[in-house]
Amino acid sequence: MTGWAVYWTGHGDLQKGAIMFTVGELAELCTGGNERALRKLLNDAGAKLDEYTENPAETVGRALVVDLYATGGARIASKLYELLEASR
Questions:
Q1: Which pLDDT band, with edges at 50, 70 and 90, does 7 fall under?
Q2: Are 64 and 72 a contacting pair, CB within 8 Å?
Q3: Which residues fall within 8 angstroms of residue 70, CB to CB, at 6 or more apart?
Q4: In the chain, where are the structural domains located?
Q5: pLDDT for 61-88, tens place per residue?
């Protein structure tokens, strides 16, 4: 699968060796590029992000994306399914 910003980090971001996704790529996938809307959805799923900051390179962990998958509704879940399967 190409085009996804999936990072395998080893320097203790959320946990050692955590899989991370960029906010910009998630925004493009879930909200058509609306980063503010994605940040709101992520905060509703339990993140603590500034909704008014624009930083598409900011990363979030796979666990938070799974929470978004569970709470974001059918449209968001269908868009995230392939991404989450690829990052297993």
A1: very low
A2: no
A3: 45, 77
A4: 11-86
A5: 999 999 999 998 999 999 999 888 888 7
The first and second tokens of residue 6, run together, are 């999936």
DSSP H helical segments within 1-88, as ranges?
23-31, 35-44, 62-71, 73-86
For the chain, helix, strand, coil in percent to 5 are 50, 10, 40
For the entire predicted model, the pTM comes to 0.77
CB 33 within 8 Å of CB 22: no
| Rounded Cα–Cα distance for residues 43 and 85 (Å) | 22
How far is Cα 83 from Cα 54, in angstroms, rounded to an integer?
Answer: 22
